[in-house]
């Protein structure tokens, strides 16, 4: 029977810190392998408007073209018409979630249950199809929730910042313009 403070560790690096009182857990804190702590209420990780992964929160965003598609690196390659559930690959044809490692093997021989991680319920299947990463690209169409008021043409121009010539930004622009004018390639050739 567990009693007092303690931690439970999982093989992949997850940890549960808890306080037990005669075998009953009274307080707990779950920490994922990457260091992200789970909150039971007000969980705002990877949701709109801040959909960054924890690695991006800790290490900052990467430049365009190098953004992370998943928090786990390297990003898994998804076979066509399959979904990445985070625990394995979901194949809608076989209605099975299989391990990343043995996905091709399981797709060929579905007779063995040892390679099948889970057979999802209809609710889980719908959630996977609506929320998980796909192995193909399709147009998403117009998404109203992605647009904010200024893109609708109703922006209030009085609230936009105004840069005067006295501001540092105005001075910076003048310096850049003067530099471009003084050191243009045509002028450099004429001076030589």
Automatic annotation (TrEMBL):
Keywords: Cell projection, Cilium, Flagellum. It is found in: Cell projection, Cilium, Flagellum. GO terms for cellular component: motile cilium. InterPro entries: Morn5. Its main location: other. This is MORN repeat-containing protein 5. It comes from Acromyrmex echinatior (Panamanian leafcutter ant).
């Amino acid at each position: 029977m567990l009693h007092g403070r303690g931690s439970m560790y999982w093989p992949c690096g997850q940890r549960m810190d808890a306080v037990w009182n005669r075998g009953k857990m009274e307080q707990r804190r779950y920490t994922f392998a990457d260091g992200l702590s789970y909150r039971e209420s007000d969980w705002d990780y990877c949701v709109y408007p801040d959909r960054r992964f924890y690695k991006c929160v800790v290490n900052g965003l990467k430049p365009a073209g190098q953004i992370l598609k998943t928090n786990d690196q390297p990003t898994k390659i998804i076979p066509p018409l399959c979904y990445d559930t985070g625990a394995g690959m979901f194949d809608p044809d076989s209605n099975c979630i299989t391990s990343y490692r043995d996905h091709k093997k399981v797709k060929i021989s579905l007779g063995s249950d040892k390679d099948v991680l889970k057979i999802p319920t209809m609710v889980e299947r719908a959630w996977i199809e609506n929320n998980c990463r796909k192995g193909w690209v399709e147009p998403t169409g117009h998404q109203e929730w992605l647009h904010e008021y200024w893109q609708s043409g109703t922006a209030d121009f009085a609230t936009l910042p105004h840069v005067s010539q006295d501001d540092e930004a105005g001075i910076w622009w003048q310096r850049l313009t003067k530099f471009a004018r003084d050191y243009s390639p045509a002028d450099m050739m004429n001076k030589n």
